[in-house]
Every structure is written in C-alpha cells, then in structure tokens.
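Chain X:
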Amino acid sequence: MSFLEAAIAAIIGSAVTALAVALKATLAGRALIANGDLVKKAFDLIDPVLDKNIQMWNGSQVEKAFELCVESVADGKLTQDEIKKIAKNMSDAWKPSVAAEKVRQLENTIFPPELKRKVSIIVQGVLNNS
C-alpha cells in the first residue's frame, strides 16, 4: 500500500506544480491584456529603441529601457511595481525579428518626429541611469 501512496503523492505534487505554472502564466497574460493599449504603445516605442541599441546594452539597460517605455506611455496611471511587472512580461514576449520588421517599415515611410523624440529621450534615460 505504501507504493500506491507514494505514487499518488507524486501525481498530486506534479498536478499542483502544473497548476501553479499555468496560473502564473495566466496572471501575466491577464496583466498584459488588461493593459493592452498601453502595452501596444510601449512596444511601438521599445522596438526602435532596442533596434539601434540592443547590441551595445547589457541586460539591466534593456530592462530599464522597457521600464521607461512603459512608464512613458502609462501617464502616471500605474504604480512602480505594476510598471516593473508589465516591463518584465513585455521583455519576455519581445521578438527581435518582429521588432526589426516593424522598424524597417517605419523607416520606409516617414518616421514620425514625435516617435523619434521619444526614442531619443528613452535612450538618454537608459544611458544616464547606467
């Protein structure tokens, strides 16, 4: 009977672990969905920032760039903790190939001056924080 109890305990442990992982992914997904418009704007801003600088920056500088992008589009509506969580989830979801394609499309059209200004401010914020 003790073998059966050990097997059941292992199955229950695996199920609890799988549930915890799924719940964490769901909560992160919900945070991104709840702030969908904000996240879209932040991705539009981070893509040109990282396109030109990712090769020169270390991990903490890239993290700071994500945080500054989220903070700049949040307009004071998020706490610092929420900004960090959204920035972390965005950095996990960021796809360099998609970002590069988006930037190339922007470069083939007229690169919006307001976006250029924001990109410059984010880059300076990261460099000044280093």
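Chain Y:
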Amino acid sequence: MKRLTFIIATLILLVAGACRKDEPSVPTEKDGEQVWHNKFTTNGLNNQVELVSFKKTNGQLEGDHYILYFEAQERYLTDSLKPKGTVATVKAAYEFQKTENGWLGPDNKVYEPTK
C-alpha cells in the first residue's frame, strides 16, 4: 500500500511539473537602466544629464520583441539642454529583440536572460 501511494504521489508530481508553464525571461529594470546610461554616453550627454531614478512601469512581450516601459527622472547638469538643476520626469519605452544570445537592446548590446 505504501508503494502504491508513493507511485501515485510521484505520478501527480510529474504531471504537475509537465503542465507548469514557465514564463519566458524578459529584459529587467536593471537592463533598461543600463540602456539609458549607454545611450546617454554614446550620444555624449553623460556629463550633461544625470539619472536620478529609473523605474520599469510595464512590459509587453510580443513574439521575439519586448517593449520595456519606464519612467525616469533626469537632472540636467548644464544649461545646454534645460536650465541647470532642472529635474524632469520622462516616460518612454525601449524595444528589445530576442536573439540566440539574449535580448538585443536599442543600444545594440545583448542582455542575457535571467530567471
């Protein structure tokens, strides 16, 4: 009887495990923040704008594309873009494309999937 109970319990666990659907790994808030830094550095603005905060607000997975929606607070360090000291809230999105090695960001860097 104990053996039958063990076999039934094992079968239930195997079936439950097989039915479990794993969510695909997608770009994280940390990935989005890194894209922000990379884009500002590439555009030569890293000495003019400082990131105060970065928050992922939503995300949408559609096939091999993922859109990471975010809200960032940026402080302007010079008067060339906005008055010095201005803190602006920006709402925007970054699109990532799935590749064999991870997610290709809008900064042309690949971000490895994390679980």
